[in-house]
């Protein structure tokens, strides 16, 4: 099974999440490729079974340019028949805007026909032990659903 992880990260927290998930999925036998959103074309998802997007949220929910560009590319795709997962790091200090961009992408993936494989994983700031456990559990669910 092929998994594609795309992430956006300003200060490294989401990059760390991507690395943790990549290692988990490799341990479960997935063929995984990971790259940063600003260096990736969303159409890369088309060659994969599992499409993953991991993002920060800045600016009280408003997307920064790198995230918005990727979102606009995604809009034009048809991901019917594929699974997706979204994750991200935010800060609860932003209350109603906590991890808002993660949920924007969750909605978009559904709109373009992909099926959510596990519920959105949101964490606060840098991934500590509890956050790592959440990512590990999500990876396990991905493996159960796709590898049987
Ligand atoms: C200017 C600024 C605005 C932010 N706005 C939000 C926000 O609206 N919602 C949220 O959940 N977190 C917000 N955050 C927190 C970041 O999303 C959080 O620190 C995250 O871990 C950063 O991820 P990164 O290290 O991958 O860049 C903001 C942080 C900064 C510095």
UniProtKB/TrEMBL annotation:
Q: Name one Pfam family in it.
A: Flavodoxin_1
Domain annotation Flavodoxin-like: ranges:
3-143
The terms under GO molecular function for this entry are: FMN binding; oxidoreductase activity, acting on NAD(P)H
Q: Which InterPro entries match?
A: Flavdoxin-like (IPR001094), Flavodoxin (IPR050619), Flavodoxin/NO_synth (IPR008254), Flavoprotein-like_sf (IPR029039)
Keyword Electron transport in the entry? The reply is yes
Sorted alphabetically, which Gene3D superfamilies does this protein's record hold? 3.40.50.360
Per UniProt, the keywords (alphabetical) are: Electron transport, Flavoprotein, FMN, Transport
Q: What does the record give as cofactor?
A: FMN
Q: What does this protein do?
A: Low-potential electron donor to a number of redox enzymes.
Tell me the protein family, please.
Answer: Belongs to the flavodoxin family.
Q: Specify the protein name.
A: Flavodoxin
Annotated source species:
Lactobacillus acetotolerans
């Amino acid at each position: 099974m092929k998994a594609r992880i795309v992430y956006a990260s300003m200060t490294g927290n989401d990059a760390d999440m991507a690395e943790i998930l990549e290692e988990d999925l490799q341990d479960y036998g997935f063929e995984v490729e990971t790259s940063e959103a600003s260096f990736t074309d969303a159409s890369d998802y088309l060659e994969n079974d599992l499409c993953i997007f991991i993002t920060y949220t800045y600016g009280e929910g408003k997307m920064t340019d790198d995230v918005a560009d990727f979102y606009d590319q995604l809009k034009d795709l048809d991901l019917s028949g594929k699974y997706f997962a979204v994750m991200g790091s935010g800060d609860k200090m932003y209350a109603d805007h906590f991890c808002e961009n993660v949920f924007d992408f969750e909605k978009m993936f559904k709109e373009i026909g992909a099926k959510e494989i596990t519920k959105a994983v949101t964490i606060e700031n840098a991934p500590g032990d509890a956050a790592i456990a959440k990512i590990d559990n999500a990876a396990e669910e991905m493996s159960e659903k796709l590898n049987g």
